[in-house]
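Predict structure. Input: SAM-dependent MTase RsmB/NOP-type domain-containing protein, 297 residues.
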Amino acid sequence: TLFANAQRLGIKIIAPVLCDIHDFKGPRCHRVLFDAPCSGWGVVGKNSDLRWSKSKKDSLNLAETQGRLLRHAATLVNPGGVLVYSTCTIIRDENDQVVEEFLLERRDFTIDSAAKTFPKELVNERGFVKTYPDFENLDGGFCVRLKKRLLRLAQVESVYVPGFYDAETRKPVIDGVPEKIIARHTLKLQPEYYPSRPIVPLTEITHDRVTVEIMRGCPQRCRFCQASRIYRPVRLRSIDDIKKQVMANLKATGHDEVGLLSLSTSDYPDIDRLTSTLVMALEPKKIALSLPSLRPG
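Output follows.
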């Protein structure tokens, strides 16, 4: 069994669950292996009674079941994750046909060819792995690696998924994604966009401080500066919002320094009042205030 093999190999991250796949309530996963129930025609040498106990009709019935289970297994895969479909049969109806029908229905999945990891003799032009008993005394079998594409995410304006576009022509290689990526900007820097309980590293880091964005964009518009073009327009956070985030972050982390971030912190319109307000709150606690993003001159 899979669990026994995991124990033999010293793998301890597998938690076996016995249930019908339709009743499985676990979280989505980045890697899903679906070892499908099949006719077993790839291991007929070990089970000679298959020649008399199985028929063509059995394979067709199994193919329907395999397709249904594969579609359900696909719901357990995270965007960008991988689904492996495998059988121990050499019957095309249970292998190629099941996968091709699945791909017609689920356009967010694509074949991730096994040519990079398997001998070329075992991988066909579609990227499927096929083994036969007459090759190196292997059992007959089939497997394919399917990758869940970020199709729904790519349909959001401004989101670019490189795998959906030709690297040279920059044209889409699949349907359903925008031909041109349009930049999108948030109009107001809402307090809920920022974490109130940031993660604290286990070791000392270079930027070992609370960092708080106070402004996005730069009013100077220097022609040599790419960032000032990319992050337009200028958007400001209120002093009250900044102070609330600073105090919440300090309470949650225990840092002894606060850094005010933007493309050019000194160009914040009310920088004097902001720094005075924060100094009054931080000085009694012996917490330093830094302005690391300053424009020279």
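The two ends are 70 Å apart (CA to CA).
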